[in-house]
């Protein structure tokens, strides 16, 4: 029998909380889903695909995902600048979770 008491627990110390801290944000999961579906994506392609996201919000979200080592940013030294984004190995490890969320959404739409 489990004798855990909520008053002695701390949500911030759970794996759930850590995972949520990485993917939390209005567009982060959408960005990860986009990279999961299309592989390598350029900034403007992602902006067009997502739609209602500002350039600044997309840029900040991409920088945060890169800092958390979930996505890789590859910059090409050319004019005009060319930057491509893709999932890292760590980011790809989230694919089963994203797949399950997609499946759940497909099965539970009202």
TrEMBL record:
For this protein, the record's SUPFAM superfamilies field holds: Winged helix' DNA-binding domain
Q: Which residues form the HTH hxlR-type domain?
A: 5-110
What InterPro entries does the database record attribute to this sequence?
HTH_HxlR (IPR002577), WH-like_DNA-bd_sf (IPR036388), WH_DNA-bd_sf (IPR036390)
The keyword Nucleotide-binding is annotated on this UniProt entry: no
Q: Name one GO molecular function term.
A: DNA binding
Keyword Transcription regulation in record = yes
Which keywords does the record carry? DNA-binding, Transcription, Transcription regulation
> By its UniProt entry, which PANTHER family does this protein fall under?
TRANSCRIPTIONAL REGULATOR, TRANSCRIPTIONAL REGULATOR, MARR FAMILY
Q: Indicate what this protein is called per its UniProt record.
A: HTH-type transcriptional activator hxlR
High-level lineage = Bacteria, Bacillati, Bacillota, Negativicutes, Selenomonadales
């Amino acid at each position: 029998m489990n004798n855990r008491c909520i008053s002695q627990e701390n949500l911030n110390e759970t794996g759930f909380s850590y995972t949520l801290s990485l993917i939390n944000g209005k567009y982060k999961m959408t960005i990860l889903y986009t990279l999961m579906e299309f592989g390598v994506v350029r900034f403007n392609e992602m902006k067009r695909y997502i739609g209602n996201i500002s350039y600044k919000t997309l840029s900040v979200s991409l920088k945060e995902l890169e800092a958390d080592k979930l996505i890789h940013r590859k910059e090409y030294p050319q004019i005009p600048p060319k930057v491509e984004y893709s999932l890292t190995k760590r980011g790809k490890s989230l694919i089963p979770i994203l797949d399950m969320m997609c499946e759940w959404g497909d099965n539970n739409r009202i």
